Amino acid sequence: MYINKAFIYGNLTRDPELKTTPTGTQVAQFSVATNRVYKDKNGAKQEEVQFHNCVAWAQQADTLCRYMKKGSAIFVEGRIQTRSWDAKDGTKQYRTEIVVENFQFGPKVGGMGTSDFGGAAKSAAAPAHAPSASSAAPMPELETIEYPSDDINPDDIPF
């Protein structure tokens, strides 16, 4: 059994670029930045940014280009693919990318502040079921988790 699956959650580094193949199929190319925070040997926090090339086809390409912009949060599920081609100067070029199989929109910046992911299908159906602002009951204030300001020592965790 072989597994080729990628899950990433990050922000678009630029607006998606929509192209059409000679056969009429739409393809969108975009890049997603993900952050990784870790501590180095001296215990100092370090942050590392990775950039992932992504490609989406057909209806997904169209939807991505309509609603996603630079800085938008996105969850991408797909497979990793490496393409190769011969450049004009005769050198072999390679590009590794994630071929999008499924995606969900992340929360909008300055939005409601929820962690709910509004996917393409969910977003299209939401207005039909959404109550109007005048008929909606006031929402109770949600409890928030208050994290300690001190760093957590892994040795203090009992499991």
What does this structure look like?
The chain is mainly beta and 159 residues long. It contains 2 helices and 6 strands. The protein has a 5-stranded mixed beta barrel with strand order 1-3-4-6-5. Strand 5 and strand 6 form a beta hairpin. The protein is extended, with a radius of gyration of 21 Å. About 14% of the residues have low confidence.
Low-confidence stretches: 113-135
Helix percentage: 10-25%
Q: Radius of gyration over alpha carbons?
A: 21 Å
Between the first and last Cα atoms, what is the distance in angstroms? 33 Å
Sheet of most strands: 5 strands, mixed, barrel
Instruction: Count up the helices.
Output: 2
* E-strand count: 6
Shape estimate: extended
Give the helix/strand class: mainly beta
Beta-strand residue fraction? 35-45%
Q: Could you give the order of strands across the largest sheet? A: 1-3-4-6-5
Mean pLDDT across all residues, rounded? 82
Topology:
Blueprint: E1 6-12, E2 17-20, E3 26-39, E4 45-57, H1 58-67, E5 73-86, E6 92-105, H2 120-129
Parallel strand pairs: 4-6
Antiparallel strand pairs: 1-3, 1-5, 2-3, 3-4, 5-6
Q: Main attributes?
A:
mainly beta; extended
At a glance:
The chain is mainly beta. 13% of the residues lie in helices and 42% in strands.
